[in-house]
């Protein structure tokens, strides 16, 4: 059986979709699976042993220059490559117009996607011939993707332990080890303070107080601090100065190199941000906090992942700015974050015994 998965973006959503590979491996062991992904996120799926071929699109770049010769050449090449293969199944896990067009150009008798109630864009409905609705337990994005890919098979999605992986090369692993350097403390933790919306951030004092509390409980620990922007780096360095010699501010890395670092740490702490999802995808325990978004929907699943939701009545508001921003940041208590971190670390220690 030949299967095509269309999941082009974004980072967190692709990571949520990775467990469908393990499901398909168990449901149809002889299947060969191709994956369509945007060039910006190809590192998330490249090298995965469960994927036969990765087909890349560049929708974001093509949109900026739709009539450029390069755009036309790449688009024609992609369509020709796609149509060379005849699939048995196509799964559209994106649910918008662009993914629908990819689905339309793909050749398969069965094209499975979201029900009309759950599509990102209604025109997507024109391009699938089986539409899958969700059940009440399907709150998390990962559960919803599993529901869609399980539709043609007898194996219930609930019977599969959801997990994924992101392949890293020996070179990536060696670079990660070099980046960590002499950070030999145990447990080895990583703080990532940044994210895309200001309403997803925590306050600087919260990070510092959490570091103090964790180092009091685990005096041999080391805390790595990662960053993605200049502003995030400044805060990481501020937190590191507060911590002292038990802190290491990481340098700039490729996505694969960063994933290799995440595979080596015992715990990752952050907000609703890509590194949390990356860590969960490679099996590293996480503690994540949620203010404007819903942790039960966006957060990682499993007992190794603890979610702290703001207790304010207006939480999960999905607002990108708010006049109560400072109050909301402080509603994520250090005590709640510490309790969650201890739970993850102590559970991991018990599992290793």
From TrEMBL:
GO-annotated cellular components: cytosol; plasma membrane
Keyword Ribonucleoprotein tagged: no
Predominant location: membrane
Record bears the keyword Glycosyltransferase: yes
One of the GO biological process terms: lipopolysaccharide core region biosynthetic process
Record key words, sorted: Cell inner membrane, Cell membrane, Glycosyltransferase, Lipopolysaccharide biosynthesis, Membrane, Transferase
Pfam families referenced in this protein's UniProt entry, alphabetically: Glyco_transf_9
Pathway: Bacterial outer membrane biogenesis; LPS core biosynthesis
Superkingdom, taxonomy of origin: Bacteria
GO function term, MF aspect, one: ADP-heptose-lipopolysaccharide heptosyltransferase activity
Membrane topology: Peripheral membrane protein
InterPro entries the record matches: Glyco_trans_9, LipoPS_heptosylTferase-I, LPS_LOS_Heptosyltrfase
EC number per UniProt: 2.4.99.23
PANTHER family given in the database record: LIPOPOLYSACCHARIDE HEPTOSYLTRANSFERASE 1, TETRAACYLDISACCHARIDE 4'-KINASE-RELATED
Similarity annotation: Belongs to the glycosyltransferase 9 family.
Protein name: Lipopolysaccharide heptosyltransferase 1
Organism of derivation: Trichlorobacter lovleyi (strain ATCC BAA-1151 / DSM 17278 / SZ) (Geobacter lovleyi)
């Amino acid at each position: 059986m030949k299967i095509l998965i269309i999941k082009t973006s974004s980072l967190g959503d692709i990571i949520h979709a990775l467990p469908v590979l393990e499901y398909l491996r168990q449901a149809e062991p002889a299947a060969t699976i191709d994956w369509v992904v945007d060039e910006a996120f190809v590192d998330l799926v490249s090298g995965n042993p469960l994927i036969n071929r990765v087909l890349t699109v560049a929708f974001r770049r093509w949109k900026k220059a739709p009539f450029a010769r390069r755009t036309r050449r790449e688009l024609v090449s992609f369509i020709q490559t796609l149509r060379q293969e005849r699939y048995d199944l196509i799964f559209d896990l994106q649910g918008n117009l662009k993914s629908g067009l990819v689905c339309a150009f793909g050749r398969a008798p069965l094209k499975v996607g979201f029900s009309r109630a759950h599509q990102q864009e209604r025109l997507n409905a024109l391009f699938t011939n089986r539409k899958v609705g969700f059940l009440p337990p399907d709150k998390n994005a990962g559960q919803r993707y599993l529901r869609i890919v399980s539709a043609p098979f007898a194996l219930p999605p609930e019977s599969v332990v959801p997990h994924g992986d992101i392949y890293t090369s020996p070179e990536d692993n060696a670079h990660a080890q070099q980046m960590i350097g002499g950070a030999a403390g145990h447990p080895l933790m990583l703080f990532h303070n940044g994210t895309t919306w200001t309403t997803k951030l925590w306050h600087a004092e919260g990070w510092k107080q959490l570091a103090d509390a964790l180092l009091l409980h685990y005096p041999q620990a080391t805390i790595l601090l990662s960053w993605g922007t200049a502003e995030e780096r400044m805060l990481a360095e501020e937190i590191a100065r507060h911590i002292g010699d038990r802190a290491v501010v990481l340098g700039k890395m490729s996505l694969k190199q960063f994933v290799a670092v995440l595979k080596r740490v015992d715990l990752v702490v952050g907000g609703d941000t890509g590194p949390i999802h990356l860590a969960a995808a490679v099996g590293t325990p996480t503690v994540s906090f949620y203010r404007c978004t819903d942790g039960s929907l966006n957060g990682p699943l499993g007992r190794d992942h603890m979610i702290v939701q703001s207790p304010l009545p207006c939480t999960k508001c999905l607002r990108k700015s708010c006049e109560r921003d400072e109050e909301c940041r402080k509603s994520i208590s250090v005590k709640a974050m510490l309790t969650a971190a201890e739970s993850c670390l102590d559970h991991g220690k018990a599992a290793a015994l």
